Structures are given as C-alpha cells and as structure tokens.
Predict the structure.
Amino acid sequence: MKQLRNILTGVLLVWGLLLSASVQADSIPVAQNGLAAERDSIAQRDDVTPAEQEKNTVNVKEIVFGHIGDSYEWHITAFGETHVIIPLPVIVYSSTTGWHTFLSSRLEENGGSYEGLSIAPEGSKYEGKLVEYDAAGNEVRPWDISITKVTLALLINSVLLLVIILSVAQWYRKHPQGSAAPGGFIGFMEMFIMMVNDDIIKSCVGPKYRKFAPYLLTAFFFIFINNLMGLIPIFPGGANVTGNIAITMVLAVCTFLAVNIFGTKTYWKDIFWPDVPWWLKVPVPMMPFIEFFGIFTKPFALMIRLFANMLAGHMAMLVLTCLIFISASMGPALNGTLTVASVLFNIFMNALELLVAFIQAYVFTMLSAVFIGLAQEEHKEKAEEKAIK
C-alpha cells in the first residue's frame, strides 16, 4: 500500500512538471502576440495627430458650461455636421463707433468678428462676451443690451406666466362670486394660488399680508415656471434662467426693497437701537452694526441659495449625460454599463429636479414673506391696543 502511494505521488509530480512546461511553451507565442499587438496599438496612437485626438476627446467643460451659460445664439440640435441654431439680435453701444445692431450669425459668417466687435476668447476677463479692441490692443467692453439666450427665455417664460394668470383671471371675471367651483386647469390653479396665499404669505407676513400678496405670488410663480422650463430639453425650454445670478439678484433686490421701504418704525428702531444691554450699543455700536449688516445679508442669502441650487442641478444632469461619451473609448462592456447607469441616474435627477423646482420657489417665497413679516412687527403695546379696538 505504501509503495502504491509512492508510485502515485511520483506520477502526479511528473504530470505536473510536464503540464507546467507545456503551459510555459504555449504562453511564449501568446506573449509575443500580445507584445506585437501592443506595438501595433502604440504605432496607431502615434499616427493620430494632436488635432484628431482633440477632436475625438469629449470636452466636458465646454458641454456643461455651454448649456448652462448665456450666449448670443440658441443652439437647438445638430444633425451630423449640420447645426440648428437660432441667431439672436446683438445690440451694443460703443463709445468710439456708436450703435451696432445685427444678428449673431454675422459673427460666424465673418470669422468671429463683425464691425470691429468679436467674442472674447477663453481665458479672457470677458470670456464669451462681445468686446472691441483699442489702439493698444486691449479688450474694451461696450455697453451691451443684446437679446441673449437667457433674455429670450426670460421673455418667453414671462409671456407664458402672463397667459396662465390672465386666463385664470378671465374666468373669474366671467363667473360671479358664489357660482360653481371651477374645474380642470382653472381649479388646479385656484388650489395652487390659495395654497401659496394661505400657507406661505398669510401665515408668514401677518395681518398686513394683502399688501404684499401680489408681489410674493408673482415671485413664486415666476421662479416655478422658469425652473420647470429649464428642465425641458428642447426649445423654448432648456435655458438656465434661475441659474443665472443676475436674475436671482434682481429677485433678491425686489425683496430687499419690499422689506425696507415698507418697514415699520419698530423695525428700524430694532436695527439702530435694539433691546440689548447698553454696553453692546455704546460706546461701540456693535449690535447696531450687526443688525444693519443683516439688512444686506438676508437678500444676499436669497440670491445665492436660488442660484446655487438651480445651477448645481443642471450641472449634475449634464455631467451624468457626458459619462456616455466619456466611456465610449473604454470598450463596449464598460460603455454599456455606464450608459445604463447614466440614463437611470438622469431619470432620477430629473424627477428630483421637478421637486427642487417647486421647493426652491417655495423657499424663496417663504423666506421673503418671513423677512417682510419681521419688518411689519409693532410694539406689543400697540398691537394689544389695536386688538382691543
């Protein structure tokens, strides 16, 4: 039995050595073929010129910032090498050459420059904007009131808002109070408007809410419609209106004016002489300075919150879409996997952005109403007297 075990051990050992030698012999041509393939791959890569390599590389930065940024034309789509573009009117005033009015397509037809005006190149202080050059070759920014992509989208969305609101108002003009409740779209808008009026404006502003309801309702529906239109990928949607800091700044300035112009004496007294220990007010007016500084930080927070949230949402969706093109050169297995993941994440992000579109309009209106309500507060004694009367 012991001899049989030794014989089997020896046979297995010899068989293992022969198998190992066979595998090594077979691996030599495979390795040689692999080296040859690698050399061919390197040779092919060497044949690719830098221009071709740059053309085949997906520029994620250009795609993302091209979609979320402003421009002098509206790019609709592309069919191969054919691009469907809506040229927009350029209206600028130069201190040296006067007024210039033309379509943005003139710039492309004339090599990027027309009537002494051209688009500032990448890396410039005025990148993407129209500039002219002085005698020393320095870029000079003219007074620009052109109808850009964001401006056109703003006008379209504003007209859409007017049509919706005026159609609802027209129904109520034709139907006296006490008639049957509206249904369909009019009924939905009534529910929506009453929700904003009762749950946000009335509860946050207080007894004087009727004075500020028109502005706050307009701000809510303006933001909401612009947010929704920004999620539509085809014309006239797709423009990043509320992701433009100039738009959110104007909205914040309107809230700033509503708060401070209609603020009560109690509001201003609490700013310049708040109810805190005297040593926090004199000789160093620390608390009055902090309260006065807070006048400007509140609208600034409104501006940045709306701008950053909408901009981040658009950027996230665009980056997820670009994964498909970035992974195109990584093989079919990886590209297919990332494509499925990109589509699923985009569906999720679009659903989330629908919710964010409502939430951001709700938050902006609610905070504006809170700030206005705080500026309408009066002393407790006066409030009690009014309640008694």
